[in-house]
């Protein structure tokens, strides 16, 4: 499963999400929403307004969610 973290610079919850994914050994890719207008629109189309937005297969969420990250491991 591909895990994508849509992020922005200087985002505390984004860094916490990266650390939790790393701790669980989950491979992920990061997309900077300030540099990718298409990705920003995709996140908005999903109904999110706050970073990070994590997309893992058919599941997605916003914010730092250690419960969701643990469920991916």
UniProtKB/TrEMBL annotation:
SUPFAM superfamilies: Thioredoxin-like. Gene3D superfamilies: Glutaredoxin (3.40.30.10). CDD domains: NrdH. It comes from the Bacteria. GO terms for molecular function: electron transfer activity. Residues 3-61 form the Glutaredoxin domain. GO terms for biological process: cell redox homeostasis. Keywords: Disulfide bond, Electron transport, Redox-active center, Transport. Belongs to the glutaredoxin family. Electron transport system for the ribonucleotide reductase system NrdEF. This is Glutaredoxin-like protein NrdH. It comes from Kerstersia gyiorum. The lineage of its organism: Bacteria, Pseudomonadati, Pseudomonadota, Betaproteobacteria, Burkholderiales.
